[in-house]
Amino acid sequence: MAGQQRYLRYIVFALVCLVLLLFISSSSSVPSAQWPTSKFKTGGAKPSQPATSNQDALKPASPPTTPNPDSKLPPATASGERMNATFVTLARNEDLWEILKSIRSVEDRFNRKFNYDWVFLNDKEFNDEFKKMTSAIVSGKTKYGLIPTEHWSYPDFIDQKRAAAVRQEMKEKQIIYGDSESYRHMCRYESGFFFRHPLLLDYEWYWRVEPSVKFFCDINYDTFKFMAENKKKYSFTLSLHEYEATIPTLWDSVKNFTKMYPQHIVEGNSLKFISDDEGKTYNNCHFWSNFEIGNLNWLRSQAYLDFFELLDQAGGFFYERWGDAPVHSIAAALMLKKEELHFFNDIAYYHVPFTHCPTGEKFRIDHKCTCQSTDNFDWKGYSCTSKFYEINGLPRPEGYENEQD
Ligand SMILES: Nc1nc2c(ncn2[C@@H]2O[C@H](COP(=O)(O)OP(=O)(O)OP(=O)(O)O)[C@@H](O)[C@H]2O)c(=O)[nH]1
Ligand SMILES: [Mg+2]
């Protein structure tokens, strides 16, 4: 009996020792404040896989396959002066989650280095969640503006019954947004009012951003400064042909404008971009306005205001479905000099369903692009970018043939 008890004591003692040993060995491999430091500084590629065991975590990080020399990485915040510029977004509260994706993309590729402000505009008050979430990820100041009712409602001279009948007709014809009232207010607002909002009066330059857009390449210079230094007033990344059924009489109004205000039509303009017969008809080419970097003072100029006023009086925002893209584009083509327009080939961009992905692999590698050249819309038949190259005598980039239809 005594022998058995001694035997049991030995077993208990051995078990306690084993548990103690196990405890000591596991606590010694809990990571302390002294993580192994990699030979490669931040900015260099990290090991592609997380360590699979505590043992692995203690090994020095394996060398990255494509080290990025620190000198090639843009600084977190670019030095130098800033332009008087802001991002601007028109959005509804329910656009929050899609606009956050767009902002993240803009910040990652550009604005984290420059910290420009962001103005949000809405026909209803922005709610607290919208303000909280957007201001959390914009690196500059955020401002939230309510659109005055007069800028987002029917002017007196519009026959609302006629407008409703048009919407019904367009619905039957299945014209995209043809039956939408809010879409029409949006197009009219973007055409004639956003640049007059009190929050925008403080700025000279704007960059328009919509929900659900993507930017695919690093932008390592100040695009606003580029615009100013190169005397640019309006810019684009994608261009295409407008859906004719939405603008049947737009060109008639444009012709009336050129007759009434010949002084606003500048010499050396880009008429050839928008008309193939010296102004008789519109070829439907326009810059896609969901992306724009432009000069607010130009939009606030008498020439542009006269243009908008004449179009507004013609009623086409409600009796047809004129978009702000052809309106801005026609104005830019007629009232700016050719050299004042800029194609931002280096801003790789997506808005459903089109992509601008810069032609040429070297550029895409150097700028860490994530877009696929086969998705590039520039040289496809429905784009107008070839025409822009043609009228400006620009040579098309090498390899464009492989990106045609
Ligand atoms: N506040 C407000 N913003 C709007 C309204 N309708 C559209 N917007 C905004 O106006 C811009 C253009 O609207 P979209 O719906 O994107 O129009 P679109 O680009 O022609 O069409 P999508 O292909 O749907 O993107 C976006 O920034 C929208 O968030 C509206 O009724 N109120
Ligand atoms: Mg959109």
Automatic annotation (TrEMBL):
It holds the Pfam family Glyco_transf_15. One of its GO terms (biological process) is protein O-linked glycosylation. Keywords: Glycosyltransferase, Signal, Transferase. One of its GO terms (molecular function) is alpha-1,2-mannosyltransferase activity. GO terms for cellular component: Golgi apparatus; membrane. Residues 30-78 are annotated as: Disordered. SUPFAM superfamilies: Nucleotide-diphospho-sugar transferases. Residues 1-29 form the signal peptide. The active site is at residue 292. Belongs to the glycosyltransferase 15 family. This is Glycosyltransferase family 15 protein. It comes from Periconia macrospinosa. The lineage of its organism: Eukaryota, Fungi, Dikarya, Ascomycota, Pezizomycotina.
